Amino acid sequence: MTGATAHALRLVRRVALLAALGAVAVAPRADATVVVAKDFGALCAEADLIFVGTVASTQSRWSDPQRQAIETVVTFADLTWLRGGPQATVELRFGGGELEGLRESVAGVPQFTVGERRVIFAHAGHYVSPLVGFSQGQFRVVDGADGPVVLDADGKAVTGVGSAALQRGAVEDRPAALPLDAFLARVRAQMTAGTTP
Amino acid sequence: MRRVLLGSLVALVATAAVSHAFELLRVNNNPCARGDQHLFWRGATVPVAIGLLPEPERGLADEARRRWNNSLRSFHFGTAGNSAPCARDGIATMVLADTPCGLADFGDALAITRSVWQADGTLVDADVTFNDNTFILDDPSAFLEVAMHELGHVLGLDHSDACGANGAGTLMESHLTPPRLEAPQGDDIAGAEAIYPVGGGGGRHQDRLAPVAVADLEMARTIGPDDLDLRRIRRRQGFVEGRRARRLHAFALASSSLPRRSCSGRRFM
Predict the structure, then answer these.
(1) Pick from B104, B173, B220: which is nearest to A33 by CB?
(2) What is the tens place of the pLDDT at every residue in A139-171?
(3) What is the spatial distance between Cα A123 and Cα B140, in angstroms, rounded to a whole number?
């Protein structure tokens, strides 16, 4: 093998490696079929309302006088506000629900159960789903060994928060999940970083 | 160096690998409650109305319908003529609008499918609304994939990543990830055939469930006057008219390059 050939071979390998790494880097979610993917920084930056709250009630009703659609009003109480507020309760409206024998849903719109506690990143206003990223702006708060910890909407443990991205662990892996206080501290830090010029 | 390269390629393949992931829409709105009855169309068919879509979206939506049909043996998307966009009429109406029927702003959604069903899981209606203010209107391959995804919801599929699986490489993943998919994938087809088993005689549920009450269907048909929405949607279509020439050109380019032979998703099983 000549020196020139060896150099060319090394160059080809490097290009192949960079291409492979580039493909891996591109592979994570970019855009969305129904929603645009949001990283942690985007959740914090785009939300008008950020709070921790307990679902106090869910109530379905017609969303319009023509009865074209059903919506469900979810009331959160026991609130800890990080942005917005500071009222004692807050209502968010989601498309879908059950009324007069009809059940209606919009795929991807999150469901809520009375009594559960969540961290919410939401837009102010009236949307099919007001959560930032449609369903992405919500995290479950559950009991851990030493206090409340944070899972994502799919039940995966939130194990860390990088510069903008969330690290996720296994489903229901509560020991690995970030404590709620630590998660909220990351949110506050991200909010501060997002407003610093 | 070779090990690094090999490791990168393995990681790439692992990232792109399709895991078994399909999830079904279910009566209690929880796809993860697998003991609950899933949603289904009696007769394993539903007519699709695309007449309210402008071109090129109408052609792309019809292509999405055909690609599903070419992939499925036990469910069929039919065609319907005119349909009111917001009526619960048993027709899967596809429209382009700034807001879905009776609902508020899309928020961060590119398109939504609103499904209506009865307590026994019988689907009464499922309509698709595309957000008229997103990049998919300028990207025919993205619009086609989104249309196929929404038709997956119409037939009864939920998001493949709804219950913890990553859903990568499936049409029903809630996010659009590169590369673009040109047909339902094996996991999507497996999900559809879990609802409508091959050889099931057009819907296994038909025999064991009570007939849909006529009164219920009549109620569904009479709810929601649609004239106002029809006018609004047509106004929006006029609004997007100016973009049509550019999109038609893009559509022509995309149509010539879309591989029709990949319509059979079974190739991916």
Answers:
(1) B173
(2) 999 999 999 999 988 888 999 987 678 888 888
(3) 29
A 101-120 → B contacts, CB under 8 A: 101-108, 111
What is the ipTM for the molecules in this complex? 0.72
Contact A88, A81 (CB under 8 A): no
pLDDT at A29: 33
Q: Which of A53-67, A116-130, B73-87 has the lowest mean pLDDT?
A: B73-87
The structure's pTM equals: 0.73
Q: Count chain A–chain B contacts defined by CB atoms under 8 A.
A: 184
Whether the link from the prior residue into A86 is cis, omega within 30° of 0, is: yes
Q: Could you tell me which residues are beta bridge partners of residue A120? A: A51, A138
- Interface contact B113-A106, CB threshold 8 A: yes
Which residue of chain B is at minimal alpha-carbon distance from A93?
B104
| Domain limits, chain B | 45-253
A108-129 in b/e form (b: 16+ CB < 10 A) is bbbbbeeeebbbbbbbeeebbb
Tokens of A25: 């880097």
Q: How far apart are CA B159 and CA B18, in angstroms?
A: 14
Query: How far is it, in rounded angstroms, from Cα B235 to Cα B246?
Result: 19
What class has domain B45-253?
Answer: alpha beta
- Structure-token pair, residue A176: 């690995």
Beta bridge partners of B253: none
Distance CA A1, CA B235 (A): 70
For B115-175, the DSSP string reads EEE-TTSBEEEEEEEEETTSGGGG-HHHHHHHHHHHHHHHHTB--TTTTS---TT-TT-SS
